[in-house]
Amino acid sequence: MTGGTGTAPAYLGAGPVAALGPAAAAEALADALRAGLDPESCPHRTGVAAPAGELLLMPAAAGSWAGVKIAGVVPGNPARGLPRITGSYLLLDGPTLTPVALLDGAALTALRTPAVSVLALRHLARPGPLRLVLFGTGPQARGHLEAVCAVAEPAEVVVVGRRPDAVAGLLGYARELGVPRARAGAPADVAGADVVVCATTAREPLFDGRLVAPGAVVVAVGSHEPDARELDTALVRSAAVYVESRAAALREAGDLLVPVAEGAIGTGHVTGTLADLVAGTHRRQEDRPQVFKSVGMAWEDLAVAAAVYRTVRANSET
């Protein structure tokens, strides 16, 4: 393959990116945190309004690597048969800042986000067969279904979505992945869930948070906007809340910022971070719901992109 100092950057399309898999991507994230990466110091996401949506710039540097993702978020794209999230990721050699690879940005996001969720679930979800309730039917919902099936044992998958055809398609994929039971559901199904994943473009709460059982885990990944949320105030107020970074969550996570604005919680309501979970200083709780709110961060893209590049390069040399 091409790519490396003094050569043209290798192009890694959707296939090579997805081939890493969510379990290996989650381990790359954990390795970065164990190596001392501090998400609190990660550069902010920069957003630029564009006629069709929003252009995002996400740079990061850590260890032997640096990189930047340029992503477009275009709400109207799905109606055109195009992905809602577009873009590319430029990976650079850290010591020289020489470009080594250009990765498909949408594929990287589709891998990175479920990997972050999986890393949190490794520490927060109870062991054994799980009942998963999944809100959404788009690429992130599909990616999270695949990721959970790769690292856990879903006894049942319940899909909640607006379009029956999309719900049916995701249920079919669940059966292909070997899930014993898969069915369409409704928001009230969260009452019996072990894990709830919210991967939607919703701007208002998806379900009544009072229905979530103690010990259950709710993962919310759909938004990084301060005025949009998938979770209601009742759930956030009662739950142990974990985030990737306190600073990032208090800039971008409407799931927390709306309850703060309502006066329901304070800015110190966060229980812990992903780094705390990986370090073992915080553990799952059985006496109340647990929420993991992800906004997506540049250090995560960098860690996963570097893992993809290392894997592809190693395979090309064997």
Structural overview:
- By secondary structure, this protein is α/β, with parallel strands linked by helices.
- The chain has ten helices and 14 strands.
- The chain has helices spanning 14-19, 22-34, 105-124, 139-151, 164-176, 233-238, 246-252, 254-262, 274-279, 298-316; strands at residues 10-12, 46-50, 53-62, 65-73, 85-93, 99-104, 130-135, 154-160, 181-184, 195-198, 217-220, 240-243, 272-273, 290-293.
- The strands form two sheets. The chain has an eight-stranded parallel β-sheet with strand order 9-8-7-10-11-14-12-13. A six-stranded mixed β-sheet has the order 1-6-5-4-3-2.
- Helix 2 packs across helix 10 and helix 3 packs across helix 10 (298-316).
- The protein is globular and about 55 Å long.
- It starts with 9 loop residues before the first strand and ends with a helix.
- The mean pLDDT is 94.
Q: Name the shape in a single word.
A: globular
- Strand-pairing-aware structural class: alpha/beta
Strand order of the largest sheet: 9-8-7-10-11-14-12-13
Low-confidence stretches: none
Strand content: 15-25%
Topology pattern, helix = H, strand = E: EHHEEEEEHEHEHEEEHEHHEHEH
What gyration radius follows from the Cα positions, in whole Å? 19 Å
CA-CA gap between termini: 12 Å
Search tags:
single chain; 318 residues; alpha/beta; eight-stranded parallel beta sheet; six-stranded mixed beta sheet; 10 helices; 14 strands; 35% helix; 24% strand
